[in-house]
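Lecture 7, part 2: worked example. A protein chain together with zinc ion.
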Amino acid sequence: MEEQIRQAAEWIRQSKHVTVFTGAGISVESGIPPFRGTDGLWSRYDPNCLDIGYFKSHPLKAWEVIKEIFYDFFGKAVPNDAHKQVAELEKMGYVKAVITQNIDSLHQEAGSTNVYEFHGTSRTLSCTGCKKLYPARKIPMESLPPRCPACSGVLKPDFVFFGEAIPQQVNFMSFYEAQVADLFLVIGTTGEVMPACMVPVHAKENGAKIIEINTELSSFTNSITDIFLQGKASEMMNRLLFHVKASDKADK
Ligand code: NAD
Ligand code: ZN
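Predicted complex, written out as structure tokens:
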């Protein structure tokens, strides 16, 4: 394993444009469970609540679940070492962009500045009536569904619900950042969510080397991954950064 980490660190140092692609796995150590798997959110909640048709017809029922998962719960999470090391790699000049499927804003909180939120964000809410946008923390949620202070329309979180399209600009920029990357770092994603799972494939098809970090094999591991670092995101990122920094120092 140490040799693989050392090799991955060398690849990072030799690359001109590292793009990072993350999924729910990077936030597990911040206390946010993933959707899938035995301890996943779907073992406790009905995924239907995040379907746009259901949300429109049953805003109260959908909001009861949405509030519990995304606002009571996510609100307390803070970035872990994996988010911090991704931000550190940007400061060092290696990472140029982060594409995340997560909606928890933890990359930005850790200091990453060029983040594409493929599935939107839970940080803001938009009015389904007048389309006005509000920071979620400014909207009281004692009485559900939360309503627009301007027109009383039902507010909807700005993340992508099942049945909704990926925001056009973010979709375009994500595939662009995959295309121009010479190194693509995939962290904590099953690779089962369409069309997000096509982004790493696009990077590979355009010549990027793929480094993957995950506790389990994903659908990328035996198809496009060049170096698979099996383990927890924070531990693997700490070890990776240790080698990048040690070699940078040795070269000076
Ligand atoms: P997923 O739930 O399908 O898979 C999570 C992946 O993370 C798995 O491959 C698992 O093996 C891996 N993993 C678990 N713990 C890990 C750790 N400590 N270190 C490294 N890897 C670890 O997640 P997904 O593929 O990202 O897709 C699910 C969708 O659900 C995404 O669209 C995402 O937006 C959404 N989601 C977001 C959050 C969040 O914002 N934090 C949380 C849950 C789900
Ligand atoms: Zn409104």
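The first helix runs from residue 2 to 14. The chain is about 35% helix and 20% strand. Keep this in mind for problem set question 3.
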